[in-house]
């Protein structure tokens, strides 16, 4: 399936490509290990979430694979001056966390996948808060999206380097990303039940942790 995008949206995405690339280069020295992101067709990109700025690094990795990412982002981002306008123009997906309408974000992401686009999300649903900076408990949203779209490639990404704290916003730092191969979820084919969602979530988080180990090695040898 090729991505379905109108000429007008192509223009907006092109502007988004350029802006994200420039801002990402300003905020991060991005080092990424290329993986299995296909050039066409629906993709679900799942990653760990260390800082408020690491989505820029993940976006840079997606753009490096010639794909434009559509992130599930907290609704508050869409109210930020400038950032919110860009998020809306480039088709990012607001998530009203903790509300009964949060499921609508998955429906919007599902529509993007039906159009052959790339959706990026953080299964934890928040910044990582574990002392060792490894991912903590995850929600089942990414797994439910994957089960709903068995044709979509689920690609794990491990990020290492950026640390929480406002001082990291004001100087350029290195972000190392390892982009893994497509996950094999064939064992859950045809299932959409809660148990399957939990099992697939565990498989996704295991794959992300494996990619984090690769990103840590990149960080040590940078």
TrEMBL record:
<dbReference type="InterPro" id="IPR002123">
    <property type="entry name" value="Plipid/glycerol_acylTrfase"/>
</dbReference>
<keyword id="KW-0808">Transferase</keyword>
<dbReference type="GO" id="GO:0016746">
    <property type="term" value="F:acyltransferase activity"/>
</dbReference>
<dbReference type="Pfam" id="PF01553">
    <property type="entry name" value="Acyltransferase"/>
</dbReference>
<protein>
    <submittedName>
        <fullName>1-acyl-sn-glycerol-3-phosphate acyltransferase</fullName>
    </submittedName>
</protein>
<keyword id="KW-0012">Acyltransferase</keyword>
<feature type="domain" description="Phospholipid/glycerol acyltransferase">
    <location>
        <begin position="43"/>
        <end position="162"/>
    </location>
</feature>
